[in-house]
Write a structure and sequence with these properties.
By secondary structure, the protein is α+β, with helices and mostly antiparallel strands. It has helices at about 15-30, 45-55, 110-120, 135-145, and strands at about 5-10, 60-65, 70-80, 90-100, 130.
Amino acid sequence: MDIATSIRGARVADHAQLQTLFEELDRLHREGAPWLLQRPDRDPRPLEWLKTLLASHNAALFVADVGVCVGLATVHLRDAPSFEMFIRQQHAVIDDLVVHPDWRRRGIARRLYEACEEWALERNASWVEVTLYEFNAEANDFYASVGFGTTMRKMRKPLAG
């Protein structure tokens, strides 16, 4: 029997549980991009960071709750560049989406994504975007499954040094 999962806005009281989920996401990124990311000496998301995020009208943090937080997603509104060629509009950016490994393959990531999309629609965002590392095949497959397509590529060339 599956445990009921609710998707809700995060609360300050969730901070410790969120730290565990963010660490899982950070570990995945550090392992996949060691040329870019390292384990920080300090907590990159202290309680004040969470309080600021939760107080923002231009951001949201959703959690998957089964009595404890087993997944999270953050989403932010962004303005189009202020260059004349760009149409004046806002879009939403999903910065983080992670589900604890023990809770994957149960539709939780999809429900977290849907909460982000609904939040963006309520704010009249023109689209939702996400930036993914190429090494993260699971995330690439997930976002393709909910309708995302590639609009541009960011490439890099390491320089000898």
